[in-house]
Amino acid sequence: TTPILEARDLFCTFQVRQGMFQPKRPLHAVNGVSLSIEKGGVLGLVGESGCGKSTVARMLLGLQEPTSGTLAIDGQPLEEIGRKQLAKRVQPIFQDPYSSLNPRKTIGNIITLPLYIHSIGDKADWRRKVEDIMDLCGLPKRAYDMYPSQLSGGQRQRVAIARALVMRPEIVICDEPTSALDVSVQAQILNLLLDLQKELGLTYVLISHNLAVVELIATKVAVMYLGRIVEEAEGQAFFAKQRHPYSEALLASVLTPQAGLGVPDAQLGTTFPNPIDPPPGCVFHPRCVHAGAVCKTTAPKTIRDGRGLVECHLYDDAVTV
Length: 321
Ligand code: SF4
Ligand code: MG
Known about the structure:
single chain, Rossmann fold, 10 helices, elongated, binds iron/sulfur cluster, binds magnesium ion
């Protein structure tokens, strides 16, 4: 079967200047990423901030053009789909329901806006469409005429979800959908996302540094480091055992008190490398507890097998670490 979403060899390079009198240099925010997801799946895209996961999300939404590589939905290249059609098929849910909702508009207006912008369906049906999706998202009818400031954080996130889903997209890109919320509310929102997925047959790309959240709902996990996917596996297999030393370290950091805050633990150290000046060899080697001499000079090959993908010399039979 054709995956509902497929990326092949995506690159996204920015020209950046580090100081006013410095020449511009290329920063490879996304440095050769391939991934695919089946309809109804949940792809968890994880990694520290700066790893390129948000840039991948922006490309999937058509907000950022790849420097090279291809993106396809149901086998159709993104550039052939066109903005309006793309907005109908792929919608984002962002992390901060406080700043993403216009405080001067009513909830009804906020959720209707995407239908208006993309002139979807009959105007006469908008009210019903909005009320239907509000109901599915667990929002009371009276919220229609209320303002964001009158709602709790959890309800505001439900509004943000309703606004994304009123378009009835097939794919939803959730960028840290719960990290701005209290822990007790996080679980409710995750359960809502799962219920909606079943009810509406959605496919999710879940971008998060919170591995507990990813473990709960992802069917497939891809770990990103400095613009590349360094490990990919089915969710269960990944959480049972990680292959890449970076994945291992990420999982270990979940068990520290900073869990979920994206704060690296002792094992990872605090030195996230400068992406404009990546280390030679394996870009993870300065932080890797398993690094050997070869890691400092030679980049590991991408190994694909029955379990998924891993990019580390430890799994290359031809290399001794
Ligand atoms: Fe660590 Fe070497 Fe594997 Fe890179 S290639 S992750 S440095 S063991
Ligand atoms: Mg980000």
